[in-house]
Specification:
The chain is globular and about 60 Å long. By secondary structure, it is an all-alpha fold. The chain is 60% helix and 3% strand. α8 runs antiparallel to α9 and α11 packs across α12. The chain is built from twelve helices and two strands, in the order αααββααααααααα. The protein has a two-stranded antiparallel ribbon with strand order 1-2. Among the domains are: 71 residues, no CATH class; 122 residues, no CATH class. It comes from Cryptomonas curvata.
């Protein structure tokens, strides 16, 4: 059977890409020693997309060393760095050793999935105009994270700590076990939103035994963030997954991202109403 011109072009393209990847690997291996790679493509794929992915990577770090490659069918290799000092060196660089810092903007761009394409300061894409748009926005945000401003929020923190002890008392009275890690996440969400926007999302209240079954704004935020981050993790490893329109998980994650955006807009609207410009 004769192959058409389209088939021949396709075969030539695939061959060229394969040759490029092969030569890239060979040249790189001659210039420097590549770190070890995880074994078993199917096993790696299954482990990476499972809830046990962090434990899998930890096991690989113990077996292969603090730096290793994850075997995945991708053009660009994925490296895992399990050494905090080395990770900081890569992210921040070292002028004395002529090492440039990593470009974190491209990495943060992956989080645009969470914001449904809305511009954020984290990806250096803002709505401010002018040559210094991102720097202007960042400068305007800086006072919110100053020590002086945090000290002003101590009464809010004290109120939330009182609520925390009340919830712990509920668990003690009921004789029920409590997940401390989850409890601290609930406390953090409540404190951050209360101190920044003056809004009590009642996250802790819904976490306690008396509040079980209540769906507060804080609980919605946590649920939406969990769904979105899980799907974001899958998309980072498998970019084409974003187009899996038949997947219920993909639809649920998109719905969660849209819900997060609605909550953020509501909080911003209420905050602006309570704090008019120049008021």
């Amino acid at each position: 059977m004769m192959l058409s011109r389209v088939h021949l072009v396709g075969i030539a393209g695939i061959t060229a890409i394969s040759l490029f990847l092969y030569l890239k690997e060979r040249i790189a291996s001659r210039n420097y020693r590549l770190p070890p790679t995880t074994k078993g493509l199917l096993k790696t794929l299954k482990s990476i997309v499972s809830p046990q992915a962090p434990m899998y990577l930890l096991e690989q770090a113990r077996s292969l060393g603090p730096v290793f490659r994850v075997q995945l069918p991708m053009v660009n290799d994925i490296y895992v760095i399990a050494d905090s000092k080395l990770a900081r060196l890569i992210l921040e660089g070292d002028d004395s050793r002529c090492l440039r810092s990593a470009d974190k903007t491209n990495d943060y761009a992956k989080f645009e999935y969470l914001t449904v394409g809305i511009k954020t300061v984290f990806t250096k894409k803002t709505y401010a105009q002018g040559p210094g748009d991102w720097f202007t926005t960042r400068k305007a945000m800086a006072p919110s994270f100053s020590t002086k401003n945090l000290l002003k929020q101590l009464p809010v923190l004290q109120a939330k700590l009182d609520e925390l002890f009340q919830v712990l008392g509920e668990f003690a009275t009921a004789g029920a076990a409590v997940d401390i890690a989850e409890l601290m996440v609930n406390l953090s969400v409540d404190f951050i939103l209360a101190s920044m926007f003056g809004v009590d999302c009642r996250t802790l209240e819904a976490f306690g035994p008396r509040g079980q079954g209540k769906e507060t704004v804080g609980q919605r935020i946590l649920k939406d963030v969990e769904l979105s981050i899980k799907e974001l993790n899958n998309i980072v490893y498998f970019p084409l997954r974003e187009w899996h329109f038949w997947s219920a998980d993909v639809h649920n994650a998109r719905r969660a991202s849209r819900d997060l955006l609605r909550i953020a807009k509501d909080l911003l609207r209420d905050y602006r109403a309570a704090h008019p410009a120049g008021g």
